[in-house]
Design goal:
This protein is α+β, with helices and mostly antiparallel strands. The protein has two domains: 51 residues; 183 residues, 3-Layer(aba) Sandwich (Glutaredoxin). It has a six-stranded mixed sheet, with helices on both faces. Strand 5 and strand 6 form a beta hairpin. Helix 4 runs antiparallel to helix 5. The longest helix has 49 residues. The radius of gyration is 31 Å and the shape is elongated. The relative contact order is 0.14.
């Protein structure tokens, strides 16, 4: 009987030692896992620090070509070509829904940048015409008129459009031939090329900070309203 009791005591002592050893090893494993997690987090921070930041897209000087509230915290930039059939499709099918849902309500602002493609012979002059109407507060009206007149673009169309809008015609005609306006179109082209734009339409959707578009996402080609809404809603929620 004594021997059985002694053996039982030894077994209990051994079980306790095994249990203590298991708990000790588990504790050491937790420490090792935490150390590895700290190393992973540290590496992630270093990689993030080394990742090149997207350059902010300057918004200064675009006020006359902006739809929506100037102080909106989220913005969409479109690089467009007035002779591009895909840009016309966006104008007719998607832009009205975006305007009604986001721009007219002041949640988001919409900015145009010119990117007339080389094989569209009238696109640059059309861009200048829209800008000249913008000098008299009618950019978007001329923008719409030019897209509605696709296939019939030329000075006669721009002049007729300006007369219909009640613009000061001497001022408008002089503006059409002003090299400053053509230079501004070229500056938009250079910016687009710097950002990697190769075709139209191209869109950049992001937050507005310190006069520039930041944390933006790029969309190329005609996109559905739902695609725009998904990106915009995410930014608006983050901002809120």
């Amino acid at each position: 009987m004594f021997i059985f009791s002694l053996m039982a005591g030894v077994c209990r002592a051994e079980e306790k030692w095994v249990a203590d050893e298991i708990f000790l090893q588990m504790s050491e494993m937790r420490k090792s896992i935490q150390a590895l997690q700290n190393q992973v987090n540290d590496l992630a921070r270093k990689v993030n620090d080394l990742t090149p930041r997207k350059p902010g897209i300057p918004l200064a000087g675009t006020e006359k070509m902006t739809m929506g509230r100037q102080d909106a915290g989220v913005a969409v930039i479109e690089f467009s070509d007035f002779e591009c059939p895909f840009c016309a499709k966006h104008y007719k099918k998607v832009l009205p829904k975006l305007r009604k849902t986001y721009f007219d309500s002041g949640i988001v602002k919409y900015l145009m940048k010119d990117f007339p493609l080389a094989f569209h012979g009238e696109a640059k002059k059309a861009a200048v015409a829209a800008r000249c109407a913008g000098e008299q507060g009618k950019y978007w009206a001329m923008h719409d008129g030019i897209f509605e007149a696709q296939g019939k673009l030329g000075d006669e169309t721009y002049i007729a459009g300006a007369e219909k809008l009640g613009l000061k015609m001497d001022k408008f005609r002089a503006c059409l031939n002003d090299p400053v306006q053509a230079k501004r179109v070229d500056e938009d082209m250079a910016l687009g090329e710097k950002l990697g734009v190769q075709g139209t339409p191209a869109f950049f959707i992001g937050r507005v900070k310190d006069g520039a578009l930041t944390d933006y996402q790029r969309l190329d080609g005609v996109q559905s309203f739902e695609t725009f809404a998904g990106v915009i809603d995410g930014l608006v929620k983050v901002k809120q």
